[in-house]
Structure formats: C-alpha cells, structure tokens
Amino acid sequence: MSLQSTLGRFPIDARTKDACGLPFACVAQPFAPFTEILSRDGKCSVPSRHSEEYECDATQLGRCQECFGYISRYCYFDYRSWTCALCGSNNPIKKGTRYHNVQNRTKLPELQSGFVDLVCEKGNHDEDEGERQGGGEVDRTPAAAFVALVDATGTEEQLEIAKAGVAAGLEALPPNAKFGIASFEGDSIALFDFRGTVPSSASIPLGVPAAAASPSAQHDDAEDLGPSALGEVVPLGWFLADATAAHKEAATSALDAIAPLASAEIDPRRNLLAEALACVVGYVSGGPQGDDDVDEGEEGAGGRSRAAEAGVACSRVACFLHGPAPAGSRSRNLKDGRGRRQGFVSPTEGFWEDLGSFASRRGVTVDLYATAASASSAEPFDLRSMRRLPELTGGRLRLYPSPGESNAPQDVFAALKEPVALNATLRMRTSNEFDVSGVFGGLVEDPRYPQLYHLAACGPHACFAFDFKFTGSGFSREPELKPTVQLAFRYEVFAPVHGKAEAEGEDKGEGREYAMQRRLRVYTKQFPVAKSALDLYEGADAHATICVLVHKLARVVEDQGFQEARALCEDWLINLLGEYNLSLNRRLLDQGGAVENPDLDFVECKALQPLLPLVYGLLRGTSLNASVFAQDPDRWSFLRSCFASLPPKDLSCALYPQLSTFSSNRGYRRVPLSWRHLNENEGVIYMADALFVVVVYYTREAQQTQEWPPPHGGLIRREIEDLGMARSVQPRAVFLREGVEDGRVFEELLLDEPAKVGTGSSADFGYDEWRAELAKEVADFLASPP
C-alpha cells in the first residue's frame, strides 16, 4: 500500500492552498509491494510474519467508536483509554483486549508501524465496512481459474499470437489453479474438455436472442440460452482442468486445432462475439446475468450472489479479439446527464458497462487483448465502448496495431504471474479538518455505505486518485496535531494453506496447496503543515501532481470536449507559474519592484522541476488530441484506459519519454528529446523509453564500434528486462540502425521537435517555442496578478 500526496506538506488553510496553485490530492496503490511502502515512509516497518502479534485476527485491531477508524501508532494513549488520531474521540480500553497490558502494548505491530496486514477470520461481519469477511479459508472453490476465449474469426497470424498468449498464460498459473479454453467460431462457442487422454470439444450455437446474454436482462420473451446452455453441454467442472503438465500438453493440442474461419464467413457473424463473451462470463460465474438474487452480506464482500455458488470464486477471463464485437440490439443509449457530447460515447457503451458491473459483482476479471490484422486495418474495435468492461472488473485492455507488433504473450504472462488482490473494498478516512471530495480510477462506490469502494481485482501497480477539500477553517498550528490519512483495504488473495508465505503470493513452490485467504491492510500516514506557499512547493510531488491532473482532465474531455480540457490545462500551468513567481518574489513585489525574468523551470524548487516537461508531453500527447480520437479512436481509448490506472512514475514515462545514451558499458540519462541533443552526442546508442515501447537507436558511428544487435546479458538488454519486471505494461523493444531501418518510430518520441499533427496548442511548435509563448503568458499574469 503506497500513498503519494501532491503536497508533501498540507496547506494550513484553503487560502494557502489556493495561493500555491497545486492540487490538494493524493494517489494510492492499495496493493503495492511492501518495499514500495518502506521506501516512501520511514515510519513504516513490516514485522515478521512468524510473529504471533502480526498474525492476529483483524477483529482484535482497535477501532474508534466515533469514526470507526483503526487504531494506529499516531493515537495518544492514556492508562485505560486512547484518543483517535483521526477524529480526536476518546475510547476506553476494555479488559481482555490486546491493549490492556500496558507493558506489551508498545510491542504490538499496529502501534510500532504505520502499516499492518492482518488475517480476517471467517464469519466476521463488519457493518461499517459494509461487508462480511470471507475468512482465512476458501468458501466455494479451492483454486483460481483462467479462462481464455479465442476469437477464431481472425487471420492465421492473429490466431498464432492468441495461441501464444494462451500458452504463456498457462505457464504463469500458480499451483493447483484451473484453466479452460473456449473459441468463438462465428456462430457458435467451442468448449474444450481435457478430462480424457485426448482433448475433445463441444460446440454450442449462438444467434438466438437470449436474456442470459444481456447484462441488462430486459428481454423477458427471449430464451435463456447462454450460460445455461453452456453448462448443460459441458458442466463447469468438466470444462475447468487442473493446471498440470499433462493438461497443459493437451491444451497445446487443443489450441492447434483452432483454425481461422474463411473470410466469407467472418463479417456476417461478428455481431455474435459480444454475446459469446457475455455467455462465457456468466458461465464461469455460475449463473445467468439476469439473476439478481443477491445476499446483502456477500454483496459487500466482493459482490458475489447466491446464484454464483456453483461458479468459481476467483476467475479471470482473457478474450483475444481480432475484430470488432458490436453489441447489436443489446445496446442501450446513455443519458447525457453530465453534458457529454453526442457521438463521443458509443451507444453500445451501456452494454459493456452493464456486463462489467455484472462481472464485478460475481468476482470475474476480464482482460481484452485486441490485435489488428495489420497497421492499416480500417475496421475499428470500438474500444471506447469496450474499455468499460476491463476497467470495472480490474482487468487489462491492450491494443496491438498488427501481429508483428503484438506483445500479447508477455502481457498475459505478466498479468497472471503478478499477485492480485481480489474482491476488495477500499475506504479512505481523514482527520476532521478535511475530507475526500472526489475519487478517480476504477472504483465502484457501495450503494449503502458512503465512501466505501469496491474493486473486483487490484494488482500491485493499480493506482487511484483522491481529491481533498477543507471542511473547516484549516489545520491547527500546533505541530503535534498533524493532518492524518488512513487507508483500509480488505481483500482476498490466493495464498498457501500450509506454512507461512507473503500475502503477495511470492512463495509458489511446486506441490503446495493454495486457497483464498481474506486479509486487511491498514496504512496510516501523517503530514506536516505548511504555513506558506513556498513551503508547499518544497515538498510537492510533480509525478503525483501530473497523475491527478490527467484524471481530472479526462473527465473534462468527457463532459466538455478536448478543446476545453486543453485550455484548462494551459490556464492551470500559467496560474501555477504565476503564483510560484509571486511567492518567490514577494519581498521584491512588496517594495514596488517587478519580476523581469520569471522562473519557468522551477530552478529554485527542485521538487517541481520535472513538472514542466510532463505538462508539455501531456499537451503534445494523445489524451487531449481531438485529431487522434477522430482518426484512431481505438488507440485513444486504449491509452485513456491505461492512463486511468498507471502509477505516477509510469504515467510520467508515458507522457514524456526518458532518453538514455549508451557508450561501451556506460549509460546516463538525458532529458531533451530533440535532434539537436542527438547531434551533440555522436558515436553513442540512444534508448527512448515511452512505457509501451522502448526504442534502441544505433547511430552510424555506433554501428562501427558497438555490437549489433545488443547482446543478451549486456547493459541495454538488462535494462529493458528490468523495465518489464518493474511495470504492469510489458514494453515492446524495437532496435533500429540509422540509415538502415525506418527511424520514424524513434522520431515520433522526440517530443521537443515540432509536431507533425497539430493538437491546437502552442506546444505543437516544439518545446522551445512553447516555452517562449508560456513566458509571455506568465509575464502578463505577473503584470496584473488576480
């Protein structure tokens, strides 16, 4: 669990916050590795998991009677009472609790560290959190399940990539997991059965309108075809096979049997793919999508209903798309309640949003891997509608322009290999002086408990943003009364039944028995108070700031369009630079002087120096570019979906690529992304990291002195491997030689050069020209400050 605030010090009041021009917000990674927590917060420690105090039941953790916040190291203790660090209420210490013994109290992990991760015993019902804890033992299934749906309407090259992706997923499965393989055959679904020595398949026809295939369940006169029909032909217990070596070998044979359809059979049948995916989701969840028989207690613990008892408690469906999946007559029009422009939101978005909500309630995570037939393919996938499905279920959306540029096998392997928190709930509590005013990311608020949010799945890189507002006059000037933030995260994890192991599932020894375990993470953090804007600048976080800015502008794009979002972004930056220079030169201005050379690069504030290039990259990128959306809506939607969940460091790399230069075995960072910089550094190798793609560029001089291609085990290869291991996005490596391969991929990453396609911003003319225009705007701001 990691927490990054845009302001390392919180403003003492709303006036000070407005004077600094920076957002008052934070970004959180609920399932971040322990090492991430320790590196960011020196007041956190992770006790040994063999400690008896650490493995206590979460019900033994003290809670405030007033605000229901958890006890922490920041609470004030008296002999037989403690004062809540959040609301200031006094709570008695009852006899028999773990806090009654004064001598042992200081040894408790929750009072030594700001972070704890505890087991939730089975049957514990927490009314305030709106959930019934699932317990340390699994309730319905002993294993996780990976289900692959392969679209057989693609070309042979597309199918080969999909088959390689499924094979990679099977290799990444943890011990005693289960898997199933299905294929979409145009007018039917083929389900494979691996019980025998030779795999067999059963085909179930599609095409009949079915209530089961519609998440809105409004077709009362339709026949219940989807999940029921699949279960009648192949029961779910037959379809899901153990991930043993024998079954994996049989799966390879089954994948080889999937052949592409004839081109004449594809187009008329594509509109059934949406129905096929909906059927598979209902099939693995254990019930038709129209069944709303929900047990309120279980609903809060991840949304699983009584209808899902026969399904799999933890399942992941990976759909390999090779063309559009129109929802057809099952689409519904979205109301324009937020003023969204007609045509920006596809009318089929309602279908995918309903399917995502249904899958999330049943604990099913859906990944979409879309591979186009070629880079010049004219038929879009309509990802602007489909992206709601993976976003609501905690899944991944990936788009590959062609089979040759596809990184699907690596992405599938990484998705299944990394630890995942499932059926989770998240709540953020704050001290009395401020509160959460907005939430950004794939969180779904509980309808019964305000500010309680549900997550179907949450990986270690998943990130969410919270906007703050003052609820009173401000914070106390007394240093011991610091602003406090507390995150409570309840989740399930696939963990070993016997022996101790990390909650992230790091111990995956062969032969171990794994099951679902319910856990609780609590992270409490305090922030110092800043009394002036200059103090706020010194503790600011540029990467967290750009992350919050991207989330806010995304909503502006949906509500008011690209032009308004771009104008708001530029106005915000001008205001920030203006307020920064006013604060920096306050004494000069009070004496009647004028700021002749404003500081545009935050020279006097090291913490904010990365911000200007990041905002420039945002203006030059796809997020605020209407022409990109008009020409390639799938690419825009793919990037929009990824940006919604990327942690700040990865998002910064996606907005403004990092350029490295290599010479022999030495590498060092360079910031400018321009040909002028490259021409000043002859005879080296350049590596541009843009998160999704890493381009290694050999100059002519480097081709004569350096080995081509970069040797395995060398510095460049090792760095690319390290980048893939540290991220949820597996970058595609491209190796180019000056004068030999087409260098346009590398040139597109040199953002400091003038843009080839305009966005409507002065950033289109290049970084130096944009900065010069920015200087004029800031000078006007300082000449007549508000």
UniProtKB/TrEMBL annotation:
GO cellular component: COPII vesicle coat; endoplasmic reticulum exit site
Residue span, Zinc finger Sec23/Sec24-type domain: 63-93
Annotated InterPro entries: Sec23/24_helical_dom_sf, SEC23_SEC24_subfamily, vWFA_dom_sf, Znf_Sec23_Sec24, Znf_Sec23_Sec24_sf
GO biological process: COPII-coated vesicle cargo loading; intracellular protein transport
Pfam family, one: zf-Sec23_Sec24
GO molecular function, one term: SNARE binding
Domain of life: Eukaryota
Protein name according to UniProt: Sec23/Sec24 transport family protein
